[in-house]
Fold this sequence. Notes:
The complex is a heterodimer of chains A (222) and B (222).
Chain A: H1 10-25, E1 42-47, E2 50-60, E3 71-72, E4 80-83, E5 91-93, E6 98-99, E7 109-117, E8 122-127, E9 134-138, E10 143-145, E11 153-156, E12 162-165, E13 181-182, E14 189-193, E15 195-199, E16 210-221
Antiparallel strand pairs in A: 1-8, 2-7, 3-6, 4-5, 4-15, 8-14, 9-13, 9-16, 10-11, 11-15, 12-14
Chain B: E1 26-37, E2 42-47, E3 53-57, E4 80-83, E5 94-96, E6 107-112, E7 117-122, E8 129-133, E9 138-141, E10 152-156, E11 162-165, E12 182-183, E13 190-194, E14 196-200, E15 219-221
Antiparallel strand pairs in B: 2-7, 3-6, 4-5, 4-14, 7-13, 8-12, 8-15, 9-10, 10-14, 11-13
Amino acid sequence: MIxxxxxxxxxxxxxxxxSSIVAAQSSTESTDITLEVLNGFALAEVxxxxxxxxxxxxxxxxxxxxxxxxxxxxxxxxxGLQIVPNVATPVSVAEGAHSVGGGAGDAxxxxxxxxxxxxxxxxxxxxxxxxxxxxxITPPAEFSLTDGTTAAFDVNIAATDIVxxxxxxxxxxxxxxxxxxxxxxxxxxxxxxxxxxxxDEAINGPxxxxxxxxxxxxxxxx
Amino acid sequence: MFKRxxxxxxxxxxxxxTFSAMSTAQExxxxxxxxxxxxxxxxxxxxxLSFGQLAVFQSLDVxxxxxxxxxxxxxxxxxxxxxxxxxxxxxxxxxTAAVDVANTVSRIVEITPxxxxxxxxxxxxxxxxxxxTPPNQATIADPTIDGALNSTFTVDITLADMTxxxxxxxxxxxxxxxxQPLRTDSNGAVGFRVGATLTPNETAAAILxxxxxxxxxxxxxx
Lengths: 222, 222
């Protein structure tokens, strides 16, 4: 008669290995995601646009007898001055085209503006913006200056009257098509605002001495 | 018996969170633009017009040319006294004799010279021509003398009686063949002296002793 014995061994080991792999792959880690949204920035006026002291006169000649009356053509204005940032002396602006009488010496519009004391461009400061970002500057539409009685002057500010101050484009004229007022490393950039003042086309007669003012809004965005 | 172990792999893929800040920020600033108008300038009389002290001899015993009746003298047959604007001390003054007529005893003798009037302009635009409007003929009289006696004088002033003081055209006359404009200097200042021609009233039987006074307006404008 013959006796047989068999051993059972391997199974236990395999099972143990299998268990450990599952345990490693099921661990999870929780991670915080943070994001701070900072869209706001500060825009402050450093100084307002000031056209200084001027002499300004505008009179329409009395009709010389041909029956014609002088008048400014549509959209044209009287004589004026332009304040250009970084240029010390205001630039004279000639009066606009106007219709006159038919003959020589016929009725004319006599319009003059000259600078007695030079004014200065306005200056604005952008701060607290993201660094290296191009800001968009929108000048105001045409506005009037009045002494409370007569709105004797019109002011026009074009995008090309704006000059960047500080940041990577310091001294460069603002470009409306490709905004180039870029903030520096601290999120700051300034800009100067010039403009053109003209005698309003309706003025015919003495312009009273005194101070003429008008409010305007500068808009900055990005 | 073999048990095939399946290895389960669980990969916790971290979700990528993308945050696009599509919103824009905008700031506005309201400013006040200013211009000061100073059309006025200062015109000051520094010295009044004086004819000094004169002896005036006038007689109606005249039989002038052209068949004038005795006792009637024509205005252009009168003696005159001219105060020149060239010398502020009156050194250039001169009486003129009456037109030579038969039996005339009319003449003016200077005792103390007269002196021209003087005016100063300040706070005008620099290097600008100003226009002077001479006065109409003035009359001087002594208010203590009966007006019916016609013991008066006429005072005539023309641009040729004016001399510029200061500015680019210092020393030139405002009238006559070598006239120059009244032009301000770099400070917007200029002056001028005004002389005159004094003529006794031809209808007076005699010019009586007295203090003769009167006034005239002189206008300066841009």
